[in-house]
Design brief:
Number of strands: 6
Structural class: alpha/beta
Radius of gyration: 25 Å
CATH architecture of the largest domain: 2-Layer Sandwich
Mean pLDDT: 92
Order of helices and strands: HEHEEEHEHEHHHHHHHHHHHHHH
Helix content: 40-55%
Strand content: 5-15%
Shape: flat
Distance between the termini: 56 Å
Length: about 375
């Protein structure tokens, strides 16, 4: 693999339409393209795409979307499903690219090969980083130092461009190495199944009406409190999207929860809340009070507050035994245990008899049926 790495040409920086057309023609000669992005989202709701890096086994480019006025050819190239898209821990990159491609009427780039998932299927840690994985698999130490750079500033330094190029320059040979290793162990189809989940558009958007699901512990709130927090979360999400500002700039999670718990009825009541800034009360106080009133009207649709009973010790012990079995199997198979089954999978199986994830796809034969059998055996007298 190292010979492929050393044969890689220097990265080209693409800033004109002519350069982009030529680059896409070169990339099209391969049946896969390694991808990475650099973006900024500290002060926005939507990520601002700053760079797109792309590489094949012997060609590497850095595409500057801030310098190009027409990106439709690039979006069409990425939407072409005849070519595999290789990414490492690619969920954020796919989110950013799907947002950028949406105005062109195009969906998520695919099909996908995620090298982090591939590595986990070969026994590496489930969250293994790109740099450590390149070091382990290819024997090359990547440079550090630009992870927190402001990628929206121009001009970019030579060091920044080299750092960006390395994110795909070694991703291409890494893919070839992992692909061959998975094929040798009969796990390539497992990777394809796992990576297909990354093409689900629901992963990359939050509908305002569903924004409350990001918050935890709502089942312990009274009906009127829960209704209020749902209304407030919907409003915050809509405001963040329309203004392209972070949710927390509209209203923090802490403020959202305190407002819902205290249910203020007046501006004076709002002033008593420690987590809500005076500026927020001044600008949005009347709107927040109206939302709380709306929540009160919807409270009848909410179920009473609940305090879930503590799980029976026997069931907790069974979950622990099942997870010990998972770890043993993972060690024997040289696979990250989290990919076989998570503790949540075991808890669903033990507490509610649910085993959808365990009994679907490749997991069914590899681990799922045995876990279900062990759980049933434990319940027998």
């Amino acid at each position: 693999m190292r010979s492929i790495v050393h044969a890689m040409q220097p990265a080209l920086c693409i800033t004109t339409a002519e350069q982009l057309d030529h680059a896409l023609g070169q990339l099209a000669n391969s049946d896969f393209v390694a991808l990475d992005t650099e973006f900024m989202r500290e002060s926005t709701y939507y990520a601002g795409l700053c760079l797109i890096q792309a590489a094949t086994a012997d060609y590497c480019v850095i595409i500057d979307p801030l310098a190009l006025t027409e990106l439709q050819p690039l979006w069409e190239f990425l939407a072409d499903r005849r070519r595999l898209k290789v990414l490492h821990a690619g969920r954020q990159d796919l989110e950013v690219l799907s947002q950028a491609m949406a105005p062109a009427g195009l969906g998520i780039p695919g099909p996908v090969f995620d090298t982090q998932i591939a590595a986990a299927l070969l026994g590496h840690a489930s969250q293994v980083g790109y740099g450590p994985l390149v070091g382990e698999r290819l024997g090359h130490a990547l440079a550090k130092g630009h992870a927190r750079a402001d990628w929206s500033r121009r001009p970019l330094s030579t060091e920044q461009l080299e750092y960006a190029a390395d994110d795909v320059r070694y991703l291409a040979p890494l893919y070839l190495d992992l692909r061959d290793a998975l094929a040798a162990q009969g796990r390539l189809e497992w990777l394809e199944e796992e990576s297909r989940e990354l093409e689900d558009a629901r992963l990359y958007r939050t509908e305002p009406d569903e924004a409350w699901r990001r918050l935890k512990g709502l089942d312990r709130l009274r009906p009127e409190q829960r209704a209020a927090i749902k209304v407030l979360a919907r409003w915050r999400e809509s405001r963040a999207m329309s203004s392209d500002k972070p949710r927390g700039w509209i209203l923090s999670d802490e403020s959202l929860r305190e407002i819902a718990e205290r249910l203020p009825r007046s501006a004076e009541d709002l002033d008593q809340l420690r987590s809500v800034a005076p500026g927020t009360i001044r600008k949005r106080g009347e709107e927040i009070l109206a939302l709380i009133a709306e929540g009160r009207e919807l409270a009848a649709n909410e179920s009473p507050a609940s305090n879930p009973p503590r799980p029976e010790p026997e069931k907790l012990a069974l979950v622990t035994r099942l997870m010990a079995f998972v770890r043993t199997q993972a060690e024997q198979m040289k696979i990250a245990p989290e990919l076989l089954a998570t503790r949540r999978d075991a808890e669903h199986l033990v507490f509610s008899g649910r085993a959808e994830r365990l009994l679907s796809g490749w997991r069914r034969e590899v681990i799922g049926e045995r876990l279900v059998a062990l759980a049933k055996q434990a319940h027998q007298p």
